[in-house]
Amino acid sequence: MAEAFGITAGALSIAGAFTACVDCFEYVQLGRHFGRDYQTALLSLDCSRVRLTRWGQAVDILNDPKLGSPDATASHIRTVKDTLCQILVLFADSEKISQQYKLGATAGEDLSVLSRDSMDSAIVALSNNMRELAIKRQKSSSILKITQWALYRRSEFKSLIEGISSLIDSIEKIFPAPQAQVTLVRQEAAQLQDRRALELVESAAEGVDGLLQNAAREVLNGHQYLNVSIKGKAQTGDAFSSDWHGKAVGASHTYEGVIVDNDGKALIGNKYGGKDFWDD
Prior knowledge:
Elements: H1 14-24, E1 28-30, H2 37-58, H3 74-104, H4 121-138, E2 149-151, H5 154-174, H6 178-190, H7 195-204, H8 210-221, E3 224-230, E4 233-236, E5 254-260, E6 265-268
Parallel strand pairs: 1-2, 3-5, 4-6
Helix pairs in contact: 1-3, 2-4, 2-5, 2-6, 2-7, 3-5, 6-8, 7-8
C-alpha cells in the first residue's frame, strides 16, 4: 500500500489510523473557484467526517481492538486498518493534486481560499457544531504533522468525497454496528438547532451519509405508526439517554391502529431524557 504523508501502515495502530483520518478533514480547504458551492461542499465534508466518527464510536475503535466483535479475525482487523490507511492515501493524493495545480497556475490566477468569514452565519454555526462533535469523538490528535491544502476543482473534491464514502461503506460492512449507529445518528439529528439546520444537513448528506440524511428527514417529517400491535415491551421511535440535553425540532407524529395488550408496555414517539423506558 502506498504511504500517506510519509507514514507506513505498519507504523500505525488501528486507533491511530482512525484518528489520523479524522484529523485530515481539518486540513482540506477550498479555492474561490467553488463560489457559492463552497458552503454545500464544506457541509458535505463535515457529514463525511461525522459519519466516520459515528462508526468509530459505535465499534469503540479507540478502546476495543476487536471493534465490538469478540469473534473478529486478525484478517478482518487488518482489512479495516488498511481501509483507513487508504482514506489517508486519498487525502494525501488530494494534497499532491493541490500542489501540482498551484505549480501549473498561470500568472495572476487567483489561488486564494474561501474562508468561513464569507459564509452564512447559520451554516458556520452548523459546521462548527459538526466539527466539535467529530473532535469530541476523536478524543485525541494524531501524529500527523501536515499543513492545510486547497482543492480548486469541483471534480477533485467530488472524487475525494466519493472515495471516502466508498471506503467508509466498506468498513461498515466488515464491522457493522447498526443499532449503535442509529442511536447516535438520531441524537445528532435531534441536537440540530432549527428546521433550517435540518434541511441543510438533509441536502449536504446526500450521497455521503444516508443515515444522517434519513434521520434529518425523519425529524423534519415526523414518524408514522400504522397498524402496530404490541404484546410485550416495545420502544418505537427515538429514545435518548438521560444525559441528553437539547431540544426537539420537527413535525408531529401520526398514530393509527396502535394496539397494546393488557400486559404490554410501549413507548411510541420520542424520549429526550429522564428515566430509561426499559428501567422498571
